[in-house]
Amino acid sequence: MSRIGKNPIAIPAGVTVEVAEGVVTVKGKLGQLTQEYSNVTVKVEEGQVQVERSSDQKEERAKHGLYRALISNMIVGVSEGFTKELELVGVGYRASNQGQKLDLALGFSHNIILDIAPEVKLETVSEKGKNPIVKLTSFDKQLVGQVAAKIRSFRKPEPYKGKGVKFVGEVLRRKAGKSA
Questions:
Q1: Measured between alpha carbons, how far is 126 from 123 in angstroms, rounded to an integer?
Q2: In the sheet that 112-115 helps form, which strands lie side by side, from edge to edge?
């Protein structure tokens, strides 16, 4: 039995969970999310959401924990939200934003201008003597992760000096340079 799938999900105050024919809808103060599901049963009872499966087939076992985790992320997202922070490490690397347009200077001949989805709140922090930071905040965990991965893909951190776009707190495996 899935250890994650067995755990019930507590519904905090201010969040409503509705289940209807293969779709779970979660509404909270930050927004509304929907998720389709199959091969499992989702029940809402006594302020908790329970995900159950009918048999031990491989596909049902795999989806049991998956849908429980997705529904849990939806509930946390609409009540608290998710934040990802990216740090630009390198001389001359800059980030600025005008509304939902992110302007990145990452050492290429032209700046990279990226339109960010309206569900994601964008903020750039530039302090003298510190690396620029891009903060992404949203109620949708998948969307925040996808946007952060897209920004990081423009200039991944290299292993020798660590220059590039990295997550705040990310530990990079460094390599020794050529020895004399």
A1: 10
A2: 94-98, 101-105, 112-115
CA distance 67 to 62: 9
Model confidence, pTM: 0.89
Beta bridge partners of 114: 102
Question: What sign for the dihedral angle of Cα 35, 10, 68, 64?
Answer: negative
Sequence-ordered strand ranges (E) for 63-179: 82-89, 94-98, 101-105, 112-115, 121-125, 133-138, 164-167
Burial class (CB in 10 A: 0-12, 13-18, 19+), 157: buried
Q: Letter for the amino acid at 41?
A: T
Neighbouring residues of 115: CB distance < 8 A, sequence distance ≥ 6: 100, 101, 102
Strands 101-105 and 94-98: antiparallel
pLDDT tens by residue, 42-88: 999 989 999 998 888 888 888 999 999 999 999 999 999 999 999 99
